[in-house]
Amino acid sequence: MNVRRRRISGIAVTAATAIGLGTLSACSSDSSAAGNTDKFDVVASFYPMQYLAEQIGGDHVNVTSLTEPGQEPHDLELSAKQTAQMGEADAVLYLKSLQPAVDEAIAQSDVKTKIDAAGLTKLEDHGNVEHDHDHGGEEHSEGEHAEEEHTEEGEHALDPHVWLDPVKYAEIAEGVAKSFEKADPDHADDYRKNADALAKKLGGLDTAYKDGLKSTDTKVFFTNHAAFGYLAERYGLTQEAINGLDPESEPSPARIKELQTEAKADGVTTVFYETLVSDKTAKTLAKDAGLKTDVLDPLEGITDKSKGDDYLAVMESNLKALETALGAK
User: How far is CA 224 from the centre of its chain?
Assistant: First the structure.
């Protein structure tokens, strides 16, 4: 059904898909397909978008996620069925430049409400990340706050992992709420109420991170891939990634040696790995350098291995892991 007949916007669908709670994402993708319900049908690109759509949309939305639980989102390929479902949605919520296949499908879709999370905040170039794959490639947000992305040899891609900074995530949530209100005005009051409640939760999370990481033995942490640049910048930390923005890339021997040296110099105790990609390189580095390992979840999807069943719970688990690894006082 289209927006006029159903007064439902595609925004909700996309948002929900992007955020996708563990249990919800499992059933969302199989249950009520986009366009076949009497609710505001939102297609979300991956978990962080799905979570926003569900939290803001509440009972008024039906959220479908394009990325299945446990699926690594960067390399997502869409099926013909998923592409068709997107065309039936009232709204689609995605983060441009993260998933090229999704960007292409949305560009060709006639969904009336297209919500690009990258255009609702400001993407940044974190500089220390090589432009080593198409994760940040030539696709970039056309939103008013997005910066031009550099694609020339030797320059860096804009970092898309904005959801790991609670402040930037809250900015995106506010933009999603406004889009929902506009696309589905009959339920605008409820969307506003839900958005305000979510903003309060994200504000509390920001405060917890500020307080928890204010005083630590070291400010440097090692990760499997460079997903935590915004989080590190927000809380005065330094992220050193084994790989670049691409979780599947392989580090050079020189990079491994460099990290071993830095671990001693900066008092690094832990190498973090994540749930959706191989932990082999992280564990090898940790063993060779005499370091511990732990999980720091980039929240690109919720699975049975996740230390929490939704965004807030996993972010709280990440905070505890960082406090331990950095020697928080």
Answer: 16
